[in-house]
Specification:
The chain has 282 residues and is mainly alpha-helical. It contains ten helices and no strands. The protein has helices spanning 12-15, 24-39, 41-45, 47-56, 64-85, 94-144, 159-185, 194-219, 223-239, 242-281. The protein starts with 11 loop residues before the first helix and ends with a helix.
């Protein structure tokens, strides 16, 4: 799932051109603009490649060369941000400077989070696939309790034997989920993916707890309590399925698109502020 928007990078060499006057205030602003252009020179030289990198970004699959370019874009924008932030603007350019710093900060945040996503998402999806495999094995184990034997006839099981068989299936299921939950505990999700990740993590943790509760209740022959816990378990499992993960990804795409739109608006605002300075001091 790719982003439709692009990261807007101001071509400050053109946008913040000199006003062409010897007036002290104009000279101060022109000097500041020259400093900004110098601070962003390396970044501006990579504008085309960076825009292409963001256009190619996907929340679910990225080629290694794209990941490498995204990492480099993060570095380039971060370096430009540090250099621009260190400048001391004249009073007339204070508003432009503040907006430039904010613009570069937003750009760097998005670049950082998208690179973070390329590191997070493959491992996260691997864990979710492991959850699906565990769930499939769990269903298989449940179906095997009292399943037909070689002659095609189901065995004659006592109620206690059947309940113990189901208890074992739930115990195995919970035990298989535990190491997956432990790996999720060691992961850190990007901000736009964090709500879905935390919900998934909580649902799996609840599944582990409920599996233990069900097994204990079945061994104690507390069937009503076991049935209530089973109902909760399947509700929890439904909230942690692939459909919910897909919804979270779509929500993240919308959030990143909104942030790219915010960056574009701020870039246009910086351009307008520059033009106001030219009109006022030119």
């Amino acid at each position: 799932m790719r982003l439709a928007g692009r990261l807007t990078l101001l071509s400050l060499v053109a946008v913040l051109a000199a006003c062409g006057s010897s007036h002290a205030r104009r000279n101060a602003v022109n000097t500041y603009f020259d400093q900004v252009n110098a601070a962003e020179s390396r970044l501006l030289a990579s504008v085309g490649e960076i825009d292409g990198t963001f256009k190619a970004f996907s929340l679910t699959s990225n080629k290694q060369v794209e990941v490498k370019r995204l990492a480099q874009a993060q570095v380039e924008i971060g370096s430009a941000l540090a250099r621009v932030r260190a400048l001391d603007p004249p009073p007339d350019a204070a508003k432009v400077h503040a907006d430039l710093v904010r613009l570069l900060t937003l750009q760097h945040d998005v670049a950082h989070e998208l690179y973070w996503t390329t590191q997070f998402e493959p491992l996260y999806m691997h864990r979710l696939n492991a959850v699906s495999a565990v769930a499939n094995m769990f269903i298989h184990d449940l179906n095997q309790v009292g399943a037909p034997v070689a002659n095609g006839k189901p065995p004659k099981l006592s109620l206690n034997t059947a309940l113990d068989g189901y208890a074992t299936a739930f115990t195995t299921y919970g035990a298989a989920l535990k190491p997956i939950v432990a790996t999720l505990d060691r992961m850190s999700a990007p901000p736009e993916l964090r709500p879905g990740f935390l919900a998934q993590r909580a649902a799996l943790d609840q599944s582990v707890t409920l599996s233990a509760t069900i097994s204990t209740a079945l061994h104690a022959r507390k069937v009503a309590a076991a049935n209530e816990a089973i109902r909760k378990l399947f509700e929890s499992a439904a909230s942690a399925n692939g459909t919910e993960a897909e919804k979270a990804i779509r929500g993240a795409v919308r959030a990143y698109e909104a942030r790219l739109g915010q960056i574009a608006k701020l870039a246009a605002q910086v351009s307008r502020e520059r033009q106001k300075l030219v009109t006022r001091l030119g």
